[in-house]
Fold this protein.
Amino acid sequence: MSRIFESKIYHFMSNIKSAEVLVVDDEQVHRYMLCSMLEEWGWSCREADDGVTAVEAVRQQPFDAVLMDVRMTNMDGMEALREIHAVNPAIPVIIMTAYSSVDSAVEAIKQGAHDYLTKPLDFDRLRETLEIAMGHRRQPETSGLQGEPFGENGRIIGSSPAMHVLWEMIIQVAPTEATVLINGESGTGKELVSSALHHKSLRADGPFIKVNCAALSENLLESELFGHEKGAFTGADRRRDGRFVQAQGGTLFLDEIGETSPAMQAKLLRVLQEYELQRVGGQETLTVDARIVTATNRDLENEVRAGRFREDLFYRLNVVVLDVPPLRERDGDIPLLADFFLHRFAGRNNRTVQGITPECMDVLNRYAWPGNVRELENAIERGVILMRGEYLDVAGLPIAIQRWAGMHPQQETEQPSTLKEAEQLLIVKTLAETGGNRSEAARRLQITRKTLLNKLKKYGLDQRE
Ligand SMILES: Nc1ncnc2c1ncn2[C@@H]1O[C@H](COP(=O)(O)OP(=O)(O)OP(=O)(O)O)[C@@H](O)[C@H]1O
Ligand SMILES: [Mg+2]
């Protein structure tokens, strides 16, 4: 029955390295067995033999997950769970129960446990549950190549398969001279990718010049890009080099290339064909030695078909195309990005932060992020500035997202497929809603208490701790 509580919104992540798990069990043999297995899977492990020691360990160190037996002498698992979360509400705690007792499982989930496992443990499920739980807390520093810094403040955070593909492409294409077209929705990180391309290129020591083609009128853009001679137009009181020349030996990033006018497209085409240009109002021919990277959130092929973008220019620009995936397609990246932004903005605003509560992370994971990474970044920045305690909670998210979360409470995604499953599901849900009160559950289900007890027995849900 545990799958009923399984939260499908957490993305499965494999191969989470260097994470540390606290294993709490009063039986030494169990601890030994669990730790050996966890270490084999690549995690490091610390042991605690009772709840008191576990709480003390959590106070000293931010573990990535706690795996805890529910029945222990000294302080039982339930109490330890409460105390652990009082110290650090962001730690996912997985409870192990000796029996498939619905009462203790319901209670554990209600108390904020991330999930529960029944003994004897199913090891595949143990591993999967831990991996899912740690998806919440994995630090960007441990996420492999993507977290690697470049440029002044650049870091591409992410570990989803989609981002791996992108990163591989960047590494492969960066050291070449190929013209690159970066495609992607607004806020996905196109500018960041252009910066990575420059900083990972052989031109990294040269200038990295950015021009937003949508921000300037056609005439201004022309003189911005090509430069102008003194007296070329009113106000041109001295000769000025354009961005192409300023980018000599480096990279020129033409952002929002899809917004350029037909006349500007023709001029750009000439430069890209001949790698030569003249300043506005000038005769002298200047050689261009800049690597050209462009970006757009428009579908340029579509623009070509619609006659709004020159086909010949399009083919010059899209020698290599990098597609930056929208955030909703990056399985598992949201917790990493959220954590990264949390610490970045905490640092900038002199705030002490410990983490993001599981409820808040749950909402962040489920929200669709139409504004992609920029929207997530803004949400976290706002949250950090308005934060009261040391954990970012749902209340710290923008009102629109809170309202969305209220309208879209977490769904149980797994639908029962048989009448028997539907009945079990309804019983467990009702028990959860009534806090395990069987008389009240029976009343709500409109059956007698005796019938309910019989059904619990029939489904093996009646054992108590
Ligand atoms: N993978 C990432 N890791 C860390 N920060 C990111 C990532 N992707 C985007 N960002 C951050 O999100 C913000 C938006 O990214 P960027 O400006 O590169 O997006 P864009 O695709 O160029 O957006 P637009 O189409 O609106 O111009 C930036 O502050 C950027 O640093
Ligand atoms: Mg941009």
User: Anything to note?
Assistant: Residues 161-324 form a domain with the Rossmann fold fold (CATH 3.40.50.300). Residues 12 and 132 are 5 Å apart (CA to CA). The chain has four domains: 2-134, 161-324, 328-407, 419-458.
